[in-house]
Specification:
732 residues, mainly alpha, Collagenase (Catalytic Domain), four-stranded mixed beta sheet, three-stranded mixed beta sheet, 58% helix, binds 2-acetamido-2-deoxy-beta-D-glucopyranose, protease, Peptidase_M13_N, membrane, transmembrane, metal-binding
Length: 732
């Protein structure tokens, strides 16, 4: 179903406007005071008469319409967007589950096993990008867009890719000086090969190098040198048996690559084994982050010269200069090094290998490159890699990942290389002015509710409250997409350095170089605003501490989380609580020990402890258990986010008319609010979050809902049920 922007909000009939007028007069909202105030200028008698008339008229209509309202209730919204959402809720929920005992199953019961809401949303909107990329002739003439479409098409043209086979890759290997497994071979210049790999082919065999924010000033870029990423875990952590199997699978894979490139099987086997041995030795030098953290050596600032002295096997200046042009580097350039110990040991190993096993070192680098480039090669290379990854998942007891259709890969790849163009096209299609202003309006309502809430917190003193309020008002909000994507004329990219063809591999390599140069150039320009860390079609909101900015990408402000034509209950419950959750992150510092000396520390500690106990008391599925720290702060943000979103929603209900419900669901607006809140969390039993900072989904539903008296009221939960506990915490 098309849930896009085109479906308009339900036309508001006169009946409905009247009905809500009733609601208003009952609640005596501020909007209504306006006419009374204006009439003050008129003669007294007339004023009295008017007042009486207005009152009696209001009273009469109130009585009349109160009954109408009682009889019919808000009517269901019948737009395609609403019908679609109603059907989605019906399909995901388990109506047999008792909402007061297990609201998670009630809302997400059948969402089991399948991918979560966020993931589903991410996939759906990639299909939206696909729609854009495949709609021939829908794009404006312009070199940039044309290149993006051409790239996508050549990615989808599997016939051409299969026909070219390993040819384009052999050519790349020749450019690198060849290897002794197949084809011609010139003698090795290690530094030259490494420089080409890093700067021309985007492959970093011994370490990674990238531009990142300077630790002392987040707007200044610095070159960072980090540990490499290996295809397989070869560190002696697993059982002997498992690691032997991993070795075998990896060897099979490398052998396949070598023979696909026309190598003699015996020779390939020898080089593949040595390559594994090199990877394995390098892996032994890696130290986990925690260990480095414990030693207080997460990173060190060194100059290129100093690094050259400590890790002499690499020609640092020439490798980095080639990689980061047009930046101009000198020996005194400062670098941020994440694990100096690793680099020293790596350098020693490379020096040793250059002396004793030159040819093998070259083969090792090229085998790694082939792995890196596989996505741009024909199906034989891709199958080999997929097989390796499935085997590794089996061996490490992870569930298999289903094969992804080619178009998703191609959409993602096009999105990486042509992000500015795709961002503008996506925003045009999925985040029109009406959605934009509705989203901003929602955010303003949430922000206002938060400011109101701050005034009533018992543990915050006046000074801290004023400070917090200032922080909220000064917050930078990025809604939907960066400025340049919302105004395409600002972000038009020509990609003049991108050369497409003759083979898909060559196109990809050209894009890799162009992208790196673009990143470097953008870092070299002063940039006063927040730099987006996600694409506009991404589904993850975030708060950036250094920029004091919240970011809500357009991909998130889509059905089923948001639509300008949805009942407000849905938008406030789903997108609104996500927005409020992000806003709560502003106050993390206050909640940490010693973070708010001026607060009523005693009351604050009491409420934090209360919430900790509240969460700890939940029965949890599986092995997941609650443990303080970051996850606790996320829980605190969940509870606060729901409270704020609900408060904002109630205020909206009071001020505006025309609230609707969802077709096919027997739920009141408030019930829909809570249902929509839960729907956001329907992402299965295991956390999708890579860092596991969030609690498992059922807890993210039950924790906050059971802390909210209004939930129990609207679902008529008997006292003592899971979602209507006998006491509640009062943090927010
Ligand atoms: C959902 O998953 C749980 C645990 O994996 C399982 O016990 C339950 O039967 C599943 N329910 C449905 C409706 O698939
Ligand atoms: C090896 O080099 C020769 C001469 O330079 C060239 O003709 C031949 O095509 C090359 N072989 C491969 C496999 O590229
Ligand atoms: C690096 O090499 C040094 C000296 O050979 C050694 O003491 C140290 O344990 C090595 N570090 C790692 C992480 O293997
Ligand atoms: C690479 O270049 C550096 C710096 O010039 C040099 O010290 C090193 O020996 C070279 N490495 C190899 C393996 O030739
Ligand atoms: C919980 O976290 C604390 C500190 O973050 C840690 O010391 C403790 O071991 C953790 N407990 C469990 C059961 O993981
Ligand atoms: C959530 C969302 O907007 N999903 C859309 C993604 O794109 C497809 C294809 O255009 C639409 O059908 C979905 O509604």
């Amino acid at each position: 179903m098309e849930g896009g922007d085109k479906s308009e909000e339900e036309p508001r009939g006169p009946r409905q406007a009247l009905r809500m007028g009733t609601l208003q007069s009952q609640e005596n909202s501020p909007e209504e005071r306006l006419p009374t105030e204006r009439s003050r200028l008129r003669p007294t008698a007339r004023r009295v008469l008017m007042t009486v008339l207005v009152f009696s008229a209001l009273l009469a209509s109130s009585v009349l319409l109160f009954y109408t309202f009682r009889n019919c209730g808000p009517s269901p919204c019948q737009t395609p967007a609403c019908r679609d959402l109603g059907a989605r809720y019906l399909a995901s929920g388990d109506s047999g589950a008792a909402p007061c005992a297990d609201f998670f199953s009630f809302a997400c019961g059948r969402a089991n096993g399948t991918s979560g809401s966020f993931q589903a949303l991410a996939e759906e909107n990639k299909s939206r990008l696909r729609g854009i990329l495949e709609a021939q002739g829908s794009w404006h003439p312009g070199l940039g867009e044309e290149k993006a479409f051409q790239f996508y098409n050549s990615c989808m043209d599997t016939h051409a890719i299969e026909a070219a086979g390993a040819g384009p890759l052999r050519q790349v290997i020749e450019e690198l000086g060849g290897w002794c497994i197949s084809g011609n071979w010139t003698s090795l210049d290690f530094n030259r090969t490494l420089r080409l790999l890093m700067s021309q082919y985007g492959h970093f065999p011994f370490f990674r190098a990238y531009l990142g924010p300077h630790p002392a000033s987040s707007h200044t870029p610095v070159i960072q040198i980090d540990q490499p990423e290996f295809d397989v875990p070869l560190k002696q952590e697993q059982e002997q048996k498992v690691s032997a199997q991993i070795f075998r699978e990896y060897l099979t894979y490398l052998n396949q690559l070598g023979t696909l490139l026309g190598g003699d099987p015996g020779k390939v086997q020898e080089h593949a084994s040595l390559s594994i041995s090199i990877t394995s030795q390098l892996s032994q030098f890696l130290r986990p982050l925690e260990q480095r953290q414990a030693q207080g050596k997460l990173f060190q600032m060194v100059t290129v010269d100093q690094l050259q002295e400590m890790a002499p096997a690499i020609d640092w200046l020439s490798c980095l200069q080639a990689t980061f042009t047009p930046m101009s580097l000198s020996p005194s350039q400062t670098l941020m090094v994440h694990d100096l110990e690793y680099l020293k040991n790596m350098s020693r190993l490379v020096e040793e290998l250059v002396l004793t096993q030159r040819d093998f070192l070259q083969s090792h680098m090229i085998l790694g490159l082939v792995g890196t480039l596989s996505p741009a090669l024909d199906s034989k290379f891709q199958d080999a890699r997929r097989e390796l990854s499935q085997k590794l998942r089996e061996l490490t007891e992870q569930p298999p990942v289903p094969a992804r259709p080619r178009w998703i890969e191609c959409v993602e790849e096009t999105g990486v290389f042509f992000e500015p163009t795709l961002a503008a096209l996506y925003v045009q299609e999925a985040f029109g002015p009406r959605t934009q202003s509705a989203a901003m309006e929602l955010f303003t309502a949430i922000k206002d509710a938060l400011i109101t809430r701050l005034r009533s917190l018992s543990w915050v003193n006046k000074e801290t409250r004023d400070e917090a309020q200032d922080k909220v008002t000064q917050l930078q909000v990025e809604m939907g997409a960066p400025e340049w994507a919302l105004k395409p004329e600002l972000g038009r990219q020509e990609y003049s350095d991108v050369q497409l063809g003759p083979s898909f591999l060559q196109s990809v390599l050209s894009c890799v170089r162009s992208l790196r140069a673009r990143i470097v150039r953008s870092f070299l320009q002063p940039f006063p605003h927040h730099r987006w860390k996600v694409s506009p079609w991404a589904v993850s909101a975030y708060y950036s501490i250094p920029d004091h900015a919240v970011v809500f990408p357009a991909g998130l402000l889509q059905p089923p989380f948001f639509h300008p034509g949805y009942p407000r209950a849905v938008n406030f419950g789903a997108a609104g609580s996500i927005m409020a959750h992000e806003l709560m992150h502003i106050f993390y510092k206050l909640l940490l020990p010693g973070g708010c000396p001026a607060c009523d520390t005693h009351a604050l500690q009491r409420e934090l402890l209360c919430l900790e106990r509240h969460y700890a008391a939940f029965p949890l599925p599986g092995r997941s258990f609650f443990n303080g720290s970051r996850r606790f702060l996320e829980n605190v943000a969940d509870v606060g986010g729901l409270t704020i979103a609900l408060q904002a929603y109630n205020k909206r209900l009071l001020w505006h008319y025309g609230e609707t419900t969802l077709p096919g669901l027997d739920l009141s607006p408030q019930q829909i609010f809570f249902r929509s809140y839960a729907q956001v969390m329907c992402n299965g039993h295991s956390s999708q979050d890579p860092h596991h900072t969030h609690s498992p989904a059922p807890l993210r539903v039950h924790g906050p809902l059971s802390s909210t008296p209004a939930f129990a009221r609207h679902f008529r939960c008997p006292r003592g049920t899971l979602l209507n506990p006998s006491s509640r915490c009062q943090l927010w």
